Amino acid sequence: MRTIDETKKQRVEQAVLELVQSNGIQGLTFGKIATQAGVSSGTPYIYFHDKEDMLSKIYVQVKEIMDAGLDEEISQGTTLQDQLFLGALHFARNMLAHPLETVYLRAIRANPQAVTPEAIKQGSARSSTMRNLYQKAIEADILVTNREDYINALLFAPFMDFMATRHAARQPVTLSELTTMINMSLAALIKHTD
């Protein structure tokens, strides 16, 4: 049995992220990955059974990176609106800090069939913090909608689309810009009593 070389495994995983950014998921092959990683063509097979297994495992790892520390950040908020803001800001910060991983998640969202249902389930389980927060906000009747999918789209889609557009144009994105967009999204999402 071959031994696991963690350095090579990390190079393979990094190559996947880089190739997904430059070429997308559809044309991704173990041969291209091996070339990009600077390893032999059989090396990816040591770590992954096939493309679906590889994409699934990397998806779960990336979700863990993006979700790390979310509970702690949200707990800093004193109101539900503050907590919603901090939850969105957490992801905005992590997306800026991990651009390859952000592109990878976007690619998986556009091609969910590329990963196993179990990987999707694991990734969704990691999103329970935000879903629980949405439920609290719905119960408190502070939102203009009680549909979680609408809440999620209104809170995240504007700044994520902004980032994707800027990324495609090779233009920088600042946390200040994303913070402004999150505040604008919250202004549309929160009921106003005046």
Automatic annotation (TrEMBL):
SUPFAM superfamilies with a match to the protein in the record: Homeodomain-like (SSF46689)
Keyword check for DNA-binding: yes
Species for this entry: Secundilactobacillus folii
DNA-binding region range list: 29-48
Keyword line: DNA-binding
Gene Ontology terms for molecular function: DNA binding
All copies of domain HTH tetR-type, residue ranges: 6-66
Pfam family, any one: TetR_N
Superkingdom to which the source organism belongs: Bacteria
Protein name in the entry: TetR family transcriptional regulator
